[in-house]
Write a structure and sequence with these properties.
heterodimer; A: 239 residues; alpha/beta; six-stranded mixed β-sheet; 36% helix; B: 316 residues; mainly alpha; ABC transporter involved in vitamin B12 uptake, BtuC; two-stranded antiparallel sheet
Amino acid sequence: MPLLEISGLTKDFGGLRAVSNLSFGVEPGEILGLIGPNGAGKTTVFNLVTGFHRPTAGAIRLAGAGLVGLKPHAVTRRGVARTFQIVKPFPKLSVLENVTLAAFLRHPARRDAEGEARRALEQVGLGAKLAAPAADLTLAEQKRLETARALATRPTLLLLDEPMGGLNPREVEDASALVRRIRAAGVTVVLVEHVMKAIMRLSDRVVVIHHGEKIADGAPDRVVQDPGVIAAYLGKRVA
Amino acid sequence: MRRAVPLAAVVLVLVLPWLTASQFTLHLAITVLLWTVLGVAWNLLGGYGGQVSFGHATFFGVGAYTTLILYLKLGLAPWYGMAVGGAVGALVSLPIGLVCFRLRGPYFSLATLAVAEILRLVALNWEGLTNGPVGLLITALPPVRIASRPIDWESKTPFYYMVAGLALAAMLAAYGLARSRLGAYLLAVREDEDTAEAVGIDTVRAKVVTLALSAFLAAVAGGFYGLYFRYVDPDAVFPIALSVEMVFIAVVGGLATVAGPAVGAVFLVTISELFRERFLVGHLIFYGLFMMLAIRYLPEGIWGGMRRLFSRHAPS
């Protein structure tokens, strides 16, 4: 059974259909890349899965249990954590406090929550910056802080919204290695990304959406040869 | 330093009645401590949680009326009435929170303002319960003996110790809250509600629970007010000015600090008394001017600013 199963998912914003009859599954232990041109509806899919938007139609199941209608915090409690495309650390709080907030979800006592937060920060390589205010971190570090915050909620499924956007090639390498480590630790990962080289090398499978519809679903090397995908990215004439 | 300041403050509060024979000074001290409780109450939600309520008079008034109504109609001693009043205040806050917290930012603030106005009008018109604009009056307080000595209700000293105990309890509650899981959740809510939800925080619940705690404290303070002045009427306990003053106390003292509201209360009561003495007419103009200066130049509040100064010079 897929860990996450999306079927017939549709979202209208007024007259605009942002996501249209979208169906795909995510297998446990998979790294799935969700790609598509700007405005294809990738972030909307994340918002629908995590309860920030309510679908117009369709079903979202995590290990068989429906997620539609749950508030975001309840979705997180079920084991789905996310990061945001535009990083949103709490700038005035320290790195450790930022992550401890999230760790409180599974650990009511502060000491246990801080322990969990330290583990998550070690995992993403921020173990040396615990006391720094989040505002003082570089963009790459802030993205890792967000990932640590998501990990501290002990998810089974992690949704990363552009974890490599705005990073230099070296940082992209580090971010890819981090995603692999997270999967190795038993967390299933779905990522939205525009850095094509990275996502093609990292993903086990890629789902391509365009105008809210799925146009391809398969192994990365197969998908890049798909005429429909090439047309979506480069225009019909090239294909 | 960290321990010495609060300890010295507590000792000063405890011995103050021995230091002065003036009933007026004691009255001012009672006023300061009452405002401290209210500032702390408001600060739980407004300072830590970032939810600016302009309607906390709602809970103050509910506490005051509950205490007096229970005493005058049912004969329940007002000190028990204060506790019941606190509980009623917390109860009343639940539907208010569930409705008002659907709104964010200034819309929330305006909704709370409206709620306080509604309660004032209810108190004004529900004459069977509240006596309407005439108000409720306690003519005599029940006799109490402590260590077989009767308490003199004509003196201000027993009231002073009562409100000092309340202020201390309120500050301890704020200290505990700031270090609890709920305190951490409130920080997250204040910083960014979407992110808070994304890390699994039930933001509505965190806000509603905090509002209930805050309302409880404000209502107990209202009960004390009724007991001390032995009189309540709708304009005394539900006015907008009262709600606004609570905001000022916390903002001038220091948002999201334990001691801030106490500092704010000392400052604002002193200032308002000074101006009232000097300028009988128009003293509120100076008071308003001072408020503007404080917000412009001390955005972290007096206590917040002092704390920053100390932490900068302290060896870390």
